[in-house]
Amino acid sequence: MNRYSSNGIFSAAILKSCLKRYMPVMFFAILYYVVIYILPEGINTGEQSFIAADTEYGTFAGIRVYSFFMPLIVSVPLFGFLHKKSATVFIHSLPFTRMQIFASTIVAGLLIINIPNIVLALYIAVAVGAKTALNALLFALLSSLFQLAICTIAAVVTGTSTMHVVMSFWFSLLPQSIYGVILLFASCFLTGFMANSNIGSVVLAMSPITSENWSFVSLSTLVYFLVSLIIYFVSALAYKRLKPERCDNAITFGWVKWVLNILAGIYMMTVIGTIFFVAYIDSFVMIVASFFGLIIGIIIGYMLLNRTFRIFKGRSLANMAIMTAIGLIFLLSFVVDIYGYEGRIPSINEVKSVKIDASGIMMDYPIEDKVMNKDYNVFNDRDVISNVVKIQEGVLDGKYNAPPSDNADWGEYRSFDITYNLKDGSTISRRYTLPYKEVDELGYIYESGEFKDQLSLSNAKMEITEFYVTTAEDAYVHKRDVTDPKHIDELIECISKDFHNRTYEEEIDYTDNLGLHIEYYDFYSDYINVRDCDTNTIDFLLEKGYIEKVK
Fold first, then answer.
1. Which residues touch 461 (CB under 8 Å, ≥6 apart)?
2. What are the CA-CA distances from residue 170 to residues 147, 231, 264 (Å)?
């Protein structure tokens, strides 16, 4: 068969030509691995292999850097013909179909990038072991496949090498950026929105290059692989429709300009809106500032993408008006909560249990999840669940309003986190800022038997071996040790009785603090503030001579 045949989607001639031209790139890539891995391994005198230390926990530091930059270095010359109209016309006049050119170029790029990875894997197999080598190779293959896909679509939709490089970097950060913008607007406008406490890991996991604790056998690995194939498929469709006369433009497809311009507006809207929100702690101010930020971002983006300052006329004005409307819809979607997030209150019959974190309000009692079982602060009592629902309803009805401005007395407000565990297996999480002295339902929850039992010191999953009794006046001077096992048991019983008897009003009344602290130790340490209402504890300490008086 003629090697220039137009049949099929692959051409050996193109592949051979690309590999021959970019052989030096592979040489320098191998040299990089020699400097980063092979030489340090050769001079390493420690007990653990240098390479094993870098790959044992999925770190792959050197491979991550390589997998990010090498696809960009390779893709710029491989797809360089797309950034010159004459070169594009010439390449497309050769006896190959566009799909043959595209597929062969991608395969050539993957080989140029991964032949050094294979060389490194062979060295690791000899120096460390086959399992470590295989793990490192699979990570390198997946990372390069993913990153080259990003660089490829950047090459197809841009018309200059500079824009190709810029868009390759920007596309790599695009999912993380969009995720961050959505989280920020949700936090500002959706009452009770509680972002994932592990946002950093979520953002890093959006790319295999930055993912933590990488494992080849995982759902995320499958997702990375499928996303890579989708990007290649979209790139191939775009390349097939690419018109040579557009190859000198900064952006070769009109719809890409629209998307980039709208995103530029939304990002500028986010920056300016956030600055004003932080300065004034006011959602309305943020809405107004965000709107003007959106307009500024649209105008600047339109100028840059079209490389002209003459944009305030007919069609350009109409386009910018439509883009601004799209950005405004995005903003208002959070303001009016079209997602139904803010007003979602489960019925009591839907709820299996509710987890509460009110450590700033009514959990001065220091029994924490590190010394409790996994069901710590998870309540099944229907009355407790009912009162949690009432608190949420009060917030949404405006009964329990959060601070209106930065002039509010923030000392009167505390955070209240809840997570409903529904019977269908799903969860609903919210975080509210409550005027805790005005919320009667908090009192019922605090004084409920289930709450008291869970946080009682006598029910803690730990073995207390020692107590220290100190006061604010003579701390570290007359510090008394309680080490007698019998006294420890009696003190635990007294503290537990006082906790069960303490009312919510007494819990939030900080004026009766005696300056008396009881520190306790097992594997961890913590302390208890003794209140004037804790009569059993005070009487015990006086009777046994651990304190002489109470102020």
1. 371, 372, 373
2. 12, 15, 12
Q: What is the pTM of this model?
A: 0.74
Q: Is 356 helix (H, G, I), strand (E, B) or coil?
A: strand
Tokens, residue 435: 């005027």
Q: What are phi and psi of 173, to 5 degrees?
A: -100, -5
Tell me the Ramachandran region of residue 463: left when phi exceeds 0, alpha when psi lies from -120 to 50, beta otherwise: beta
Separation CA 321–CA 314 (nearest Å): 11
SS3 assignment, position 43: helix
Phi first, then psi: give them for residue 307, nearest 5 degrees: 50, 50
Burial class (CB in 10 A: 0-12, 13-18, 19+), 524: exposed
For residue 102, what are the contacts with CB-CB under 8 A and spacing of at least 6? Answer: 235, 236, 239, 240
pLDDT tens, the chain, 551 aa long = 345 455 678 888 889 998 999 889 999 999 999 988 888 877 766 666 667 666 665 578 889 899 999 999 999 999 989 888 888 899 888 888 999 999 999 999 999 999 999 999 998 888 888 888 888 899 999 999 999 999 999 999 998 888 899 899 888 888 888 888 888 888 888 888 887 656 666 666 677 777 766 677 677 888 889 999 999 999 999 999 888 888 877 788 888 889 989 999 999 999 898 888 877 777 788 899 999 999 999 999 889 888 788 888 888 899 999 999 999 999 999 999 998 999 999 999 999 999 988 766 665 454 544 444 456 688 999 999 999 999 999 999 888 876 655 555 656 788 888 999 999 999 999 989 888 888 999 999 989 988 888 878 777 666 666 677 766 554 434 557 888 889 888 988 998 899 899 898 888 877 766 677 777 765 556 677 788 888 998 898 888 888 777 66
Task: Walk across the sheet containing 513-521 and list its strands.
Answer: 480-482, 466-471, 513-521, 525-531
The 351-357 sheet, strands edge to edge: 378-379, 351-357, 414-422, 427-434
Name the phi and psi angles at 166, rounded to 5: -60, -50
Strand partners, 353: 421
**Residue 353: what are its φ and ψ, rounded to 5°?**
-160, 170
